[in-house]
Design brief:
The complex is a heterodimer of chains A (137) and B (185). With 137 residues, chain A is mainly α. Chain A has 6 helices and no strands. In chain B, 66% of the residues lie in helices and 0% in strands. Classes of the chains: A mainly alpha (137), B mainly alpha (185).
Amino acid sequence: MAYLKYLLVGIIFGIVLVKSEAVSWYRIYEMFRFQSFHMYGIIGTAIVSGILFLQLSKHGKLKSKKGTEIYVIEKEKGLIRYILGGTIFGLGWALIGACPGPMYVLLGTGVYAMLIVIAAAMLGTFIYGILKDKLPH
Amino acid sequence: MEFLLNPWPWYVSGPLIALIMALLLYFGKTFGMSSNLRTMCAISGAGKFSDFFKMDWRDNAWNLTVVLGAIIGGFIAVQFLSNDSGTHLNADTISELEAFGFSKPGTTLVPKELFNTDAIFSFKGLSLLIIGGMLVGFGTRYAGGCTSGHAITGLSSLQRPSLIAVIGFFIGGLVMANLIFPIIF
């Protein structure tokens, strides 16, 4: 039953991504052509709300369920992996019109071709795992 | 009810996505969807080939549960919370995509020219899905996160690596949509 809350969070996530049209292939294309404010509005207000939440937590106003401090683990310092990995991901994001969350949400909406995309994404992750030590980070 | 069935405005959707991040942090977890690809590799036995996948997948069972929920949420949203309003795209977007050969842009969530059965069973269609998926899977792990981990969580916590990654996301996306699409479509 401890997992029920994660299932519910996932369900809300799926509903929000469909209703916001963030899973729309067309919205992603429109964003990368600078032809609509929609996606920038979503990502922008998500970040602003996120900053507010994390600042409130930081100043002790909000605690986690266990009563501990809420914080985000610091990412490792670096440049090449972020810019190069980010660019590779961006190429795929625009082509598929979906990042790793929307892939599953779209599967639920009945886009069964996402099974192929998810399998290919697993393969891509697997290839990274094999090449990891040879890549610049 | 109509406001629920219509597409939700961006200023409602954005804060709700932040709420997802907040709930997961409140439960002592993080908001990162691409990690599930690594977990699924580990479950499939990828640990035999690389130490990167030698992990106890049960530690991430909570995140796979979020994935299961996301699939169910997608189903609920289209079955019970949608009308036939479609996506109101920019007129330029529509005419550009029609010129690429996409019919009725915005009436569905994804173009049938890329995702329906005919596309899957064509060489070009299948190749694009596989290449796109691989780019996403490789790129997110190389960058250590995707839209949820870097753009939302990373930027909300004001982290420089995430800003660099998001700049990368946009370089890649802009190149694909502006330079590569005219070649492949």
